[in-house]
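Side project, low priority. Logging it here so it doesn't get lost.
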Amino acid sequence: MPRFKTDLHIHTSLDFKKSCNRSYGILSPYELVDRAKTLGYKVLSFTHHGALYIDSDISRYARKHGILIIPGLEAFIDDKHVLMYNFFNKEPIDSFSKLLDHKSESNLVVAPHPFYPSKSCLQKSLVENIDCFDALEYCHFYTPFYNPNKKMLKTSDIYHKPVVGFSDTHIDAQFGTTYSLVDAEELSTEAVITAIKQGMVEVVTNPLSLKQFVYISYWLFAKIPFFEIVHKQTDISLKKFYFIGK
């Protein structure tokens, strides 16, 4: 069965209000596709905050390089981050109960960095709403001495949820730090989602060095807040929820 190098948690320069360019370490969708090709990736998702990014041009560009882009976003559900893939709803999904109602075989819900110390992380909401989630994310942001993923792994074992590894890329230094190898029947959205739900995934990850940890921390907590995220709240009405790339 084919094995596809996969990262389904990526933010691009279009996810920020302030104009971003390569000098800031924040990459455009095209630059990320180019980087992904160089590193052997086959599946990506651009998960902007609160909005589904769809751009037929970038999808075609990726396909020319043998890369599949799965439509996804990092949504806000009860003020918590939730990764949602292949959702196309005409009504708002603004609660975990509605999220559960709209789950199907064709879509995928992942818990991103669930036990990290941020008010946007799921924390206890993960267990309270565990049926909403198909998989849990092993986050790249850890060291040999600091690793909140350990609690996620215990939760995965208890509730028999697959674990996926993604980079949560905001800047170039994060991309490639953690990824998944997905054993899917073919390179398609449906096949990749099915494989993840079935646990046909191997996480590839290594702890960050102290230098990497300090550098990424500086960008995430000192520099990036000045750029401002485009979407502060998720609106899943078709008019406002979809950010259509030009």
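Brief comment: The chain has one domain: 3-244.
Revisit when time allows.
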